[in-house]
């Protein structure tokens, strides 16, 4: 049985659902999950989704922006950030917000392969590095 890469699964799924809607897309997703489970590769699903999101963004679809903060953003804050990013990036954006207990304060924003780390942990680490190199 051949095993495919994350990118190959994502590309195959994208091609399979291209002209499909609703129930047909759900069935294709269900079949992919069954296949991954049968191959004992179900842990790949999150990486396949990320690869699929990259393919969609490359084709001009919405770019997924990961936002990590102490708590998930409320709708109003998420909408404001979405509007600002769409204006800045000049393309549609989809915000994925999640809470991260490692972030004491501040926020981390991942846009494609760019990371904006404005977290307290990052700032404290920078301060620590400065203190170690200056003394």
TrEMBL record:
A GO molecular-function annotation: proton-transporting ATP synthase activity, rotational mechanism
Domain of life of the native organism: Bacteria
Keyword match Transmembrane helix: no
Similarity field: Belongs to the ATPase delta chain family.
InterPro entries: ATPase_OSCP/dsu
Name assigned to this protein: ATP synthase subunit delta
UniProt keywords, alphabetically: ATP synthesis, Cell membrane, CF(1), Hydrogen ion transport, Ion transport, Membrane, Transport
One cellular component (GO) term of this entry: proton-transporting ATP synthase complex
Role description: This protein is part of the stalk that links CF(0) to CF(1). It either transmits conformational changes from CF(0) to CF(1) or is implicated in proton conduction.
Membrane topology: Peripheral membrane protein
Cellular localization per UniProt: Cell membrane; Membrane
Broad class of where this protein is predominantly found: membrane
Species for this entry: Candidatus Kerfeldbacteria bacterium CG08_land_8_20_14_0_20_43_14
């Amino acid at each position: 049985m051949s095993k495919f890469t994350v990118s190959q699964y994502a590309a195959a799924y994208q091609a399979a659902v291209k002209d499909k809607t609703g129930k047909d897309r759900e069935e294709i997703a269900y079949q992919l999950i069954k296949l991954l489970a049968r191959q004992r590769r179900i842990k790949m699903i999150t990486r396949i989704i990320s690869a699929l999101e990259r393919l969609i963004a490359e084709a001009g679809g919405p770019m997924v922006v990961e936002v990590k903060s102490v708590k998930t953003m409320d709708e109003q804050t998420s909408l404001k950030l979405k509007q600002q990013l769409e204006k800045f990036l000049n393309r549609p954006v989809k915000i994925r917000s999640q809470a991260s207990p490692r972030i004491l304060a501040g926020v981390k924003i991942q846009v494609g392969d760019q990371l904006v780390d404005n977290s307290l942990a990052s700032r404290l680490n920078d301060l620590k590095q400065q203190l170690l190199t200056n003394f």
